[in-house]
């Protein structure tokens, strides 16, 4: 499995790339998962059989290509929530300064 972000324009220099991964799991809750994510999560499948998360973890995947598209109401009824998005917010053409990264993190905090 490969995923990539295109290189910046030839007149730009990029020294750093950011990837934010946040997760929260509760062992006290029944096992059910909602995975909200961008294209990095589209290969995750739920159900029984080879290549699936498994019967013991029922759940669903919800597409959220950016932090702004996360809908907290879709997490209702699930005990475990995985957020796997933010990479699209942090592409080279979207980040011009460190404050842009702080803005994405602030947006994510406001989703609770």
What proportion of the residues is helical, as a percent range? 10-25%
> What is the 3D form?
flat
Which range does the strand content fall in? 15-25%
Radius of gyration: 16 Å
Largest sheet: 4 strands, mixed
Give the SSE string: EEEEH
List low-confidence stretches: none
Strand elements, count: 4
Distance between the termini: 31 Å
Q: What structural class is derived from the secondary structure elements?
A: alpha/beta
Mean pLDDT value: 77
Strand order of the largest sheet: 1-4-2-3
Brief account:
The chain is α/β, with parallel strands linked by helices. The chain has one helix at residues 98-109; strands at 22-24, 33-37, 59-63, 80-84.
Question: How would you describe this structure to a colleague?
Answer:
The chain has 112 residues and is α/β, with parallel strands linked by helices. It contains 1 helix and 4 strands; from the N terminus they run E-E-E-E-H. The protein has one helix at residues 98-109; strands at residues 22-24, 33-37, 59-63, 80-84. A 4-stranded mixed sheet has the order 1-4-2-3, with no helix packed on it. The longest helix is centred in the last third of the chain and has 12 residues, at 98-109. The mean pLDDT is 77.
């Amino acid at each position: 499995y490969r995923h990539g972000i295109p290189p910046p324009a030839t007149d730009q220099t990029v020294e750093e790339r950011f990837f934010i991964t946040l997760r929260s799991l509760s062992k006290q809750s029944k096992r059910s998962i909602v995975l909200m994510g961008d294209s990095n999560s589209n290969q995750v499948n739920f159900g029984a059989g080879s290549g699936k998360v498994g019967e013991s973890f029922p759940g669903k995947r919800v597409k959220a290509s950016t932090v702004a598209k996360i809908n907290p109401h879709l997490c209702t009824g699930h005990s475990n929530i995985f957020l796997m998005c933010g990479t699209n917010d942090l592409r080279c053409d979207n980040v011009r300064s460190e404050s842009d990264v702080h803005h994405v993190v602030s947006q994510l905090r406001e989703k609770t």
